[in-house]
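Let us practice reading a record.
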Amino acid sequence: MNNYFRTVLIGLLTLSISMTAHADEIKQDTTEQQQQQQKAKDTSQQTYKDIEKTFGFVPKFLEQYPSASIDGAWAQMKSMEMNNNTALDAKSKELIGLAVAAQIPCTYCIEMHTKIAKSLGASDQEVKEAVAMAAATRHWSTVLNGLDIDEAQFSKDVDMIIKNMEKSKKLGE
C-alpha cells in the first residue's frame, strides 16, 4: 500500500505542477492578448482621428466597421480610392466603382460612387455609359463562359481585332 500511495502522491504532484505551469502559460497568453488589443485600440483611435480630419466627421459606416480592421480599410481607401497620385484620375476610379457596384449589386456603393463621380465632374451621360459598360461586360462574360469559348483562340482573336482596327484607324472611334 505504501508504494501505491507514494505513486498516487507523485502523480498528483506532477499533475499539480503541470497545471500550475499551464495556468502561467494561459495568464501570459491573456496578458499578451490584452496588450495586443490595447495596441490595436490605440491605433484604431488614431485612424478615427485621421478619418475625422479628412471628412470633418467619422461616417457611421466607418464607425461601425470592426475596429480591429479599420486601420487597413482606411489605408486602402486613402492609398487607392482617395489618392490623386495614381495612374487613374479620381473621376475614372469613381466611374469604375459605379460600374462594379451596379453589377454586384450594392445600392450603397451605387449612391456613393455616383454622387462622388458627379461631384468630380462626371456628366449624366458618363454615369450612364459606365453602367452600360458594366452591363455589356456582364453580357459578354455570360456568352463567352456559357459557350465555353476556347481562351487561347479568343486571345488570338482579340489581338487580331486590335491589329486590324489600329491599321484601319477605327480603334477608339
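A brief commentary: The two ends are 101 Å apart (CA to CA).
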